[in-house]
Amino acid sequence: MDGTGLKAFLNRLRRLFTVSGDSPELVQAQFRAFCKQMPTLYFILTVSTLSVSYTFSSRAPLWLSVYLPMAMCLVCVGRFLWWIRAGKTPVSDDVALLHLKHTNVLASLLSAGLTCWGLNLYGYGDDPAQGHVIFYMALTVIGCIFCLMHLRSAAIAVTLIVIVPYIVFLMAEGGPTERAIAINLGLVCMAMISVLLTHYRDFKELIASRRDLTAKQVETQALSNENFRIANLDALTGLPNRRRFFHDADAAFAAAEANGRAMAIGVIDLDGFKPVNDTFGHAAGDRVLVEAAERFQSAVVEAGPVAATVYRLGGDEFGLVVQGDLAEGVLEDLGRRLTGTTARPFAAGGAYAQMACSIGFALWPQSGANAESLFECADYALYHAKRHLRGQTVLFSAEHQAEILNQSVVERSLQAADLGTELSLVYQPMIDLRSGATVGFEALARWDSPVLGRMAPGVFIPVAERTGLIGTVTRALLEKALREARTWPEALALSFNLSAHDICAAEGVVRLIAIVNASGIDPRRIDFEITETAMAADFERARQSVIALKALGCQVSLDDFGTGYSSLSYVHRLPLDRIKVDRSFVADLDSNPASRKIVKSLTSLCLDFGLTSVIEGVETEAQLGALSGLNGDLAQGYLFARPMPAGDIPGYLAGEALPRVAHGA
């Protein structure tokens, strides 16, 4: 340490043990507190000293055991009476400061005297008497800390003057028990000093905050602040809440419209938060949300030419109001900065969770006629990001507007449709990679609308989910699939996809079970496929639904495995039968060693858990050949057969379309 550092250290040390008169309000508050606390302190010292004096009156010399403690007790009684009188008369700031300084010095002298007296008595006692001395000093220190806590310098000085000599003495002269007591006493005093410092800091800040306010002003300000916090701030993250978001969005839109300047609204959704909440608990989920809020705030502070404010809208959804120079590419840059903040793992429940975030932006004047419609556009851009560009930023565009119009048409047509007549199914076979035999078919939905023509499930299923029609669609399709599967050989299984609504709605699984029971098909032939996304919607409810389906005898598969954020937790916590390896890992299986390693690790995982692996999306001979030696069980894809209507299945099974498999796969 150089000379400058040493000088600074000594200055800090001096301030620690000096009574400061910089704040008259603090001095007066300390003096008023002492008028109440110092009589208690001197009462404790007097009673404790007389008790020790009595214990040693027949063991030690009278001057040490009686006369000296009596003299110190007389000093304590005098100070006791003085502080009682002092509390009845107001004093000036200078006089109060003088009394505090005298107390600082007297406390140090008195503690030094009592310490020396106790150490001298210690040698005259047997074990119980010596224990009384130790107890006396510990009690004295604790009492002093509490009674002197409003005068930091005196409390710390007394603690050090008493405890340090006793610890040194007991460590040097005592046995194992005394050494243990010394260590314990030292640790307790360290903790007490920490509490003291925190209390003194809070006390000092409290006095400073009241400096310029009357008692009425303090009460009014506190009430106003609390009302503002409740009405406009999120209690968990401290961010402005949903109410404040829409208020600020309206104000920003009005200002932008008046000035002819651009503004934007953004919506952020944490990808993978729900599984974290389900796996590690709500307390860990809350900590993740707080950390995410802090990261988002840091990102927008560095947003350069724009001013962006982060809001918590609810759950794991956050909002943004963006103003400033919104030139081309600025929102994309802000989005990349925000998504980049979630790339680092989040601490959750003693472990680390990997998440991402998807963001939707809507820019005025290109989109929206007011703040509310701008928010709806941003929300749709977020929806598009989560379905197609998860973990990225999407800016609402004319194409999205066209999609909304198209989906409105689909929604109206779906609501008016005769689902029992217009919905149909095609079936794609699943092949045993070892024997080459067809073991079952996956049912794939189709909708032949008299208005819109044939619609793929990727078009109408999301609309059905968003409009609440998915339950009706699922039941109509399941009844039809079971009716058609009754004509198949009993060895063939039926795979049927369920949505989040089917397994998370209270009545959803009950209706499915009723349909299965009424079909006359052995439930063991039915394999219900669920996705990680469906599980994430409400894991506990979904888990209960899976258990109910298993109790019925049905099999349950986890679809699109490896594309979500908590696949392994689902495998561990759910009674699964199959795992379907997503087609994205198979597309370049024959050319990408990384994809081969991923598929091999997933099939090995299935082996370890006793699950059947199903490889999706096998479309070429090269991909099929690459599966050799990867321990896959089943496969499906265009290489074996395209989805076919129920009427073509008998011909397919008779050998009209022979599947090709890699020997030894």
Task: Assign an overall shape.
Answer: elongated
Report the major sheet.
8 strands, mixed, barrel
Please indicate the percent range of residues in DSSP E strands (runs of 2 or more): 5-15%
> What is the share of helical residues?
55-70%
- Mean pLDDT rating: 80
CATH topology tier name of the largest domain:
TIM Barrel
Task: List the uncertain runs.
Answer: 656-665
CATH class of the largest domain: Alpha Beta
**Rg result:** 38 Å
Number of strands: 17
CATH architecture of the largest domain: Alpha-Beta Barrel
Question: Summarize this, please?
Answer:
With 665 residues, the protein is an alpha/beta fold.
Describe the fold and architecture:
The protein has 665 residues and is an alpha/beta fold. It folds into 3 domains: 3-209, no CATH class; 237-396, Alpha-Beta Plaits (2-Layer Sandwich), CATH 3.30.70.270; 408-656, EAL domain (TIM Barrel, Alpha-Beta Barrel). The protein contains 25 helices and 17 strands. The strands form 3 sheets. An 8-stranded mixed barrel has the order 8-9-11-12-13-14-15-16. A 5-stranded mixed sheet has the order 2-3-1-6-7, with helices on both faces. Helix 13 links the parallel strand 6 and strand 7 (393-395). The longest helix has 34 residues, at 176-209. The protein is elongated.
